[in-house]
Amino acid sequence: MANWGEGRRRGGGGMLPLLALSTVAEYYRLPWKPPVTASLLAANTLIYLRPSFLDPLLPHLSEVWFNPHLIVKHKDLKRFLLSAFYHLNEPHLVYNMMSLLWKGVQLETSMGSIEFASMIVALLGMSHGLTVLLAKSLLALFDYDRAYYHEYAAGFSSVLFAMKVVLNAQSEEYSSVYGIIVPTRYAAWAELILVQMFVPSASFLGHLGGILAGILYLRLKGSYSGTDPLTMVVRGVTQVVSWPLRFVNNMLRSRRRQRISGRGRVGRGQTGIAGSGMWRCQACTYDNSGWISVCEMCGTGRSENGSSVYQRPTRPSSGDLPVEELRRRRVERFG
After folding, report:
1. Taking the model in full, what pTM does it have?
2. Range of the domain at 312
3. How far, CA to CA in Å, does 237 sit from each of 112, 117, 240, 242, 249?
């Protein structure tokens, strides 16, 4: 998250093409393209760009600022949820989206799209909820400190801090955070301090709420056996939304199964198989589809009355064919 300040007035220097190039390059090299990460990148970018066809539908930034006081006073869920998808300028957007691209690809690839989507929803709700709780607690404990409770902020970074905690929770390696080597599992804490030092306008409580949300998510995940309810809800919604596509796909599959095939079976008995639309070759006793006129097994032709007659007159009749001749014809037929 970033606070309202002078940074909103600064231009981005054309950084959006860099974001587009990085995203295309990353997705091009991946054998499986994570759809939820791509959707989040697109949603954040489109909201920032506000194309003409979306502009009437999107609330303005002034209506969705994350502000603990207004959220508590008016129970404003619009500010609580949508503020994460609004950014102040191009550097703010590009920095957050590059971080989302790197973290999202790794997490979605390892977790699967449905569980990853449910995790994003949970982290968004928990990080913003904890931020409001922290701001309200500071106001209650230190009545003079109203800065955090009344500050305005926006951006996806609180969720990104939570994702960083989840991603690095089990790592035993070391990472570089702004040139400082720290254990990877504590990289989010180091980044929280360093970001606040280098970017004082960043929302300290928002980032702290994200870290605590990541820790809380891991604790709840570890203490709960089975599929969590939120994942089940997301899976159910996904199934409902994708039902038309599955319906069309199943129709196409069923039509492909109904395509005429000459495959049959070898057997003994009558020449024609009543009611089945099949005919039995007199030479090799192979049951063929009624839609073909030449035996698929040995190449013997079908006569008018349903019996089979070999179509090359230079060869012996089908009834006198020896076993070796039948075997040779089968080998010749199937190459």
Report:
1. 0.68
2. 265-334
3. 16, 11, 5, 9, 19
| Cα distance between residue 118 and residue 114, in whole Å | 6
pLDDT for res 316: 47
Q: Is 157 a catalytic residue?
A: yes
Residues 187 and 283 in one domain: no
**Residue 38 burial by CB count (10 A; 0-12/13-18/19+): exposed, middle or buried?**
middle
Q: What is the pLDDT of residue 113?
A: 94
Residue 269, pLDDT score: 43
Instruction: For residue 203, give the nearest of 83, 312, 39 by alpha carbon.
Output: 83
316 DSSP assignment: P
Which member of 87, 92, 128, 207 is catalytic? 207
Q: How far apart are CA 86 and CA 49, in angstroms?
A: 10
Please tell me whether residue 280 adopts helix, strand or coil conformation. Answer: strand
Q: Which of 83, 127, 157, 203 is the catalytic position? A: 157
Ranges of residues in the chain with a pLDDT under 50 are 6-10, 259-275, 308-318
Q: Are 125 and 57 members of one domain?
A: yes
Q: Give residue for tokens 């040139």.
A: 179
Number of structural domains in the chain: 2
Residue type, 316: P
Query: What is the C-alpha to C-alpha distance for residues 2 and 205, in angstroms, rounded to an integer?
Result: 10
Per-residue confidence (pLDDT) for residue 266, from 0 to 100: 46
207 in active site: yes
CATH number for the domain spanning 220: value is 1.20.1540.10
